[in-house]
Amino acid sequence: MQEKFSLIKSGAQKEVELVQTTRELNDLKVKYLGKSGEITALLRGMKDIPAEKRSEFGKMVNDLKVEVGEIFDQKESKLKEKELQEKFEKEAIDITLPGKKPKTGNLHPINIVKNEIINAFSGMGFEIFEGPEIETDYYCFQALNIPKDHPARDMQDTFYIDEDIVLRSQTSTGQIRVMEKKQPPIKILSPGRVYRSDDDASHSPMFHQCEGLVVDKGISLCDLQGLLDEFVKLVFDKQTKTRLRPSYFPFTEPSVEVDVTCSKCHGKGCSLCKGTGWIEILGAGIVNKKVLENCGIDSNEYSGLAFGLGIERVTMIKYGITDIRTLFENNVKFLKQFDRR
Ligand code: PHE
Fold first, then answer.
1. How many angstroms separate the alpha carbon of residue 318 from the centre of ligand 1?
2. Phi and psi, residue 165, nearest 5°
3. Closest Cα to atom 12, ligand 1: which residue?
4. pLDDT higher than 90, residue 95
5. Chain-centre distance of CA 239, in angstroms?
6. Main-chain dihedrals φ then ψ at residue 258, nearest 5 degrees
7. Measuring CA to CA, which residue among 99, 100, 75 is closest to residue 24?
């Protein structure tokens, strides 16, 4: 009997040693200690043992049960530790790997350039004024010396909401809105969207302008050129020069068209400036006396300069963009080139 017990114990020991996982160990435990296991079978056989040997036999079976149980317990804690270790190794995170950058947007080139223009003029003491995009015919045309049915309206045909309400075709509307409310000295910059019924590689039905207006005593064309010279150096580069050419706008007299030296060839002549070395960037002039009077400003005491520049135009010159439509297609590959981070 003793021998049989030892065999069971050493059998368990050997089998337990070969086990690799807790699951296998549990299966094996059932074989020895489960309901129909070998050791339980011994206990069941108690009834066939003569009464006087029964208690000794019972004690021996119990001892065996405890010993075999310990073999299993020891193995179980070893296996658990090993399995935990393996789990840790498998799930380990390499904290030295670079993280994934979340995708973020960036400013649209038009907004980048708009901010640069605003910064340049704010630095020269200009205040920002933003007028409405839906305007009356009066603010958009009549007050700017463009009467109804006047041929000068052809220069900027826009979208009419009704007879008297239009989508503004120019930010020059800002001149009137400011001068009506404020007496000189005035120094404002009015950025915003404008609309015209135009659509080709260099014109868009919606685009952005920045209007500048300075009204004070003794303002002249020299002030205008000085101001613009300073501005182009800030927005393009230090070598950029301006030149004024005579032009016509109903709300300025005299009127000029302002060119800058080409940002690509610096005046030598290239494809961007069509060989001339110069690129037109804005319209400007000395505020027409009639416009000052329309706003209740004494034109004998005060004079003013005004200029209106297209933000798309400055953006295109600055970055060598040849088709204005690329600015509105929202092609992410194009826009990402302006990500400055
Ligand atoms: N408003 C004019 C345009 O859109 C530009 C301009 C502004 C010209 C101010 C003279 C003075 O073409």
1. 21
2. -115, 130
3. 283
4. no
5. 32
6. -110, 130
7. 75
- Quote the tokens at residue 213: 């207006």
- Cα of 272 to ligand 1 centre, how many Å? 23
Which of 172, 190, 248, 288, when mutated, tests ligand 1's pocket best, judged by the most ligand atoms within 8 Å of its CB? 172
- The per-residue pLDDT for range 262-320, each reduced to its tens digit, is 988 888 999 888 899 999 999 999 999 999 999 999 999 999 999 999 999 999 999 98
Q: From residue 223, how far is each of 2, 159, 306 by CA, in Å?
A: 119, 35, 11
Q: How far apart are alpha carbons 172 and 306 in whole angstroms? A: 8
CA of 329 to the centre of ligand 1 (A): 27
Count how many Cα atoms sit within 13 Å of the Cα of residue 164 in the half-sphere of its side chain: 2
**Dihedral, CA atoms, 113, 115, 117, 119, nearest 10 degrees?**
-150
Residue with tokens 């010396």: 145
Cα 151 from chain centroid (whole Å): 44
Distances (CA, A) of 110 to 143, 230, 279, 304, 312: 29, 21, 19, 28, 6
Query: What are the φ and ψ backbone dihedral angles of 121, each rounded to 5 degrees?
Result: -75, -35
The backbone torsions φ and ψ at residue 253, rounded to the nearest 5 degrees and listed phi first, read -155, 110
Enclosing H/E stretch for 307:
strand 303-310
End-to-end CA distance of the chain: 84
Length of the chain: 341
Write out pLDDT tens, residues 79-90. 999 999 999 999
- Angle, helices 109-122 vs 311-319, to 10°: value is 110
Instruction: Give the whole-number percent of the chain exceeding pLDDT 70.
Output: 100
CB within 6 Å of ligand 1 — which residues? 170, 172, 211, 249, 252, 283-285, 306-308
- Closest by alpha carbon to 175, among 200, 141, 225, 219? 141
Match 């179980």 to its residue by tokens.
Answer: 76
Strand ranges (E), 36-144: 127-128, 134-136
